[in-house]
């Protein structure tokens, strides 16, 4: 059994419409769920992932599909370079599955979960700043800011204060240690439907991995790299990510509000680089959510590349 069930798989395949001879980038390889389903159609898959622990899953897929599969270790921001490196002439589709996977959460040594004791790491790759670096070194203001911005934690200032007070005694090293301090700062669980540390851990993970910046960069790269008629499918699990994807597609399809008929904006004078595959977002059905609770918050948005020039940089 795969340690990570691909969410909205049938809907993603419908949006990508892969065929024999197509070249598809699976920008979040993980355990290879989307990749295997795409490969079964006869398409070639260039899989991307910055997580070094996915290599055994990639080796298994490569053993079954040696001619039509390859994995490239890179984050979303390296998508265009990865495609150029592949030597393929035309890109027919890109799929993103945003956020942390269940198999990453289940690995205590990765430090993503407050439910399992492990080093306070949270890096999806093996490089860069860790969550421990942030809580042990950042000032109160920046720390409270990310808790509020990325975690929607209303008591962000109180949590940051508690972290600063405790780290004077000894630095944070373990996930359960941080979770306990956050829980106490927020007054305990008191029947809360989610653990009090949920939002803080989410915020730290997003900051450590620059997840929102990577998403923007990945969307820009997909726009620049997809051939006319190429399909884009993006699955998100959080409102922050979905908001970025929705805004990107709203703008790139020429449906952004604003401007004036007397003084058209730059957005209005550009040709749409995408057309929507369907309006709004698709969500998982009851049968899927019963079997995979992670699917409850999933949203799929999809679009088709036009022959217009790419628009480039996304506003933060």
In angstroms, what is the radius of gyration? Answer: 21 Å
CATH classification class of the largest domain: Alpha Beta
Q: Which series of helices and strands comes N to C?
A: HEHEHEHEHHHHHHHEHHEEHE
Cα separation of the termini: 39 Å
> What number of domains?
2
Instruction: Outline the low-pLDDT stretches.
Output: none
Structural class: alpha/beta
In the CATH hierarchy, the architecture of the largest domain is 3-Layer(aba) Sandwich
Count, helices: 14
Question: Into which percentage range does the β-strand content fall?
Answer: 5-15%
The profile of the biggest β sheet is: 8 strands, mixed
Defining traits:
single chain; 316 residues; alpha/beta; Rossmann fold; DNA polymerase, domain 1; eight-stranded mixed sheet; 42% helix; Ribosomal RNA small subunit methyltransferase H; S-adenosyl-L-methionine; RsmH
Structure description:
42% of the residues lie in helices and 11% in strands. The protein is built from 14 helices and eight strands. Strands 1, 2, 3, 4, 5, 6, 7 and 8 form an eight-stranded mixed sheet that branches. Helix 2 (33-39) links the parallel strand 1 (23-26) and strand 2. Helix 8 packs across helix 9. It is globular. The protein starts with 8 loop residues before the first helix and ends in an 11-residue tail after the last strand.
Question: Which helices and strands occur, and which strands form pairs?
Answer:
Elements: H1 9-16, E1 23-26, H2 33-39, E2 44-48, H3 55-64, E3 69-72, H4 79-86, E4 93-97, H5 102-105, H6 131-137, H7 140-151, H8 156-169, H9 175-185, H10 198-209, H11 211-225, E5 231-236, H12 239-252, H13 266-269, E6 274-276, E7 282-283, H14 286-291, E8 299-305
Parallel strand pairs: 1-2, 1-4, 2-3, 4-5
Antiparallel strand pairs: 5-8, 6-8, 7-8
């Amino acid at each position: 059994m795969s340690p990570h069930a691909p969410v909205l798989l049938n809907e993603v395949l419908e949006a990508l419409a892969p065929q024999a001879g197509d070249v598809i980038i699976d920008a979040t390889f993980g355990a290879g769920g989307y990749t295997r389903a795409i490969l079964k159609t006869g398409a070639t898959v260039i899989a991307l992932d910055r997580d070094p622990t996915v290599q055994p899953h990639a080796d298994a897929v490569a053993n079954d599909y040696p001619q039509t599969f390859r994995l490239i270790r890179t984050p979303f921001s390296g998508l265009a370079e990865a495609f150029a490196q592949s030597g393929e002439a035309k890109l027919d589709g890109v799929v993103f599955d945003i956020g942390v996977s269940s198999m990453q959460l289940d690995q205590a040594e990765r430090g993503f979960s407050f439910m399992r004791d492990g080093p306070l790491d949270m890096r999806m790759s093996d490089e860069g700043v860790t969550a421990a670096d942030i809580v042990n070194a950042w000032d109160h203001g920046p720390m409270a800011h990310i808790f509020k911005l990325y975690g929607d934690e209303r008591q962000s200032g109180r949590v940051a204060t508690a972290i600063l007070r405790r780290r004077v005694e000894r630095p944070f090293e373990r996930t359960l240690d941080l979770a306990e301090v956050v829980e106490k700062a927020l007054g305990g669980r008191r029947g809360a439907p989610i653990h009090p540390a949920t939002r803080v851990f989410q915020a730290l993970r997003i900051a450590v991995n620059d997840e929102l910046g990577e998403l923007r960069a990945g969307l820009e790269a997909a726009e620049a790299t997809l051939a006319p008629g190429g399909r884009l499918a993006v699955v998100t699990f959080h409102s922050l990510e979905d908001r970025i994807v929705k805004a990107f597609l709203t703008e790139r399809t020429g449906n952004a509000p604003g401007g004036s008929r007397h003084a058209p904006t730059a957005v209005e004078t550009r040709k749409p680089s995408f057309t929507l595959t369907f309006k709004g977002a698709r969500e998982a059905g009851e049968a899927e959510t019963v079997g995979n609770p992670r699917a409850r918050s999933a949203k799929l948005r999809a679009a088709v590349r036009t022959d217009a020039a790419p628009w480039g940089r996304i506003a933060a």
